[in-house]
Amino acid sequence: MEKDEINIPENDAEYNCMISSLLKLNEFEEAEKIYTEWESVSGSGDSRVSNLLLAFYINKKEMELAENFYNRMVQRGIKPSYTTWELLTWGYLKQKQTDKVLDCFKKAVGSVKKWEPDEKIIREVFRNLEEQGNVDGAEQLLVTLRRAGHSNTEVYNLLLRTYVKAGKMLLIVAERMKMDKVELDDETHKLMKLTSKMCVSEVSICIS
Fold this sequence. Notes:
Elements: H1 12-24, H2 28-41, H3 47-59, H4 63-75, H5 82-95, H6 98-110, H7 119-132, H8 135-147, H9 153-166, E1 168-169, H10 173-179, H11 186-195, E2 199-200
Parallel strand pairs: 1-2
Helix pairs in contact: 1-2, 1-3, 3-4, 3-5, 5-6, 6-8, 7-8, 7-9, 8-9, 9-11
């Protein structure tokens, strides 16, 4: 029987298209079969194909299945891409698993030579940290952003809001912003005034 007669996809792009179409129709079992076939015939290790199923699990809020699938990817020698880490970041955000959020976000940023900032995910991670009053996590996030060359007024204001929520004073914030060549705005001054009335935080600040 000829290859065309049994309708076997010829490359990753075709597998990608088939799996994507099946998932849109909620035909998950068929999509999984096609993916398993792709694993057996393709040696490309293209994470774009794997990310389709990973996204499906995460969108269904099935993080345990998503984690198991991620482990399967790694075991098969598929290198996680920026999108892989971004998907996991969003998934853990929904679960409010802060340590995993920060770890995956850091790996996402570090997986590309030049990171194009995603303001939506930055705000969402900070919002989650603010809700928890997690100043340690907020400082860790700032370190990741600074190392990627992305520190600005909004980022520092988001950090300050987390300190306000925690009832902690953020020390030398003006100096840190000056070091990063970041301007203070009206909100910055208001937040600094609020935190100045609070107790000093014991969080270890990394400004290198």
